[in-house]
Amino acid sequence: MSDRGPAHGRHVPVMRDRILELLAPALERPGAVHVDGTLGMGGHAEGVLERFPECVVVGIDRDREALSLAGDRLARFGDRFRPVHAVYDEIKDVVADLDVPTVDGILFDLGVSSLQLDEADRGFAYRVDAPLDMRMDQSTGKTAADVLNTYSVEDLTRILRDYGEERFARKIAKIIVTDRAAEPWTTSGRLVEMLRRVIPAASQRQSGHPAKRTFQALRIEVNDELEVWRRAIDEAIDVLAVGGRIAVLSYHSLEDRATKRAFAEGATSSTPPGLPVELPEHAAYLRLVTRGAEAPPDDEVTTNPRAASARLRVAERVRDTHSSASTTRKGTPR
Question: What's the whole-model pTM score?
Answer without folding.
Answer: 0.83
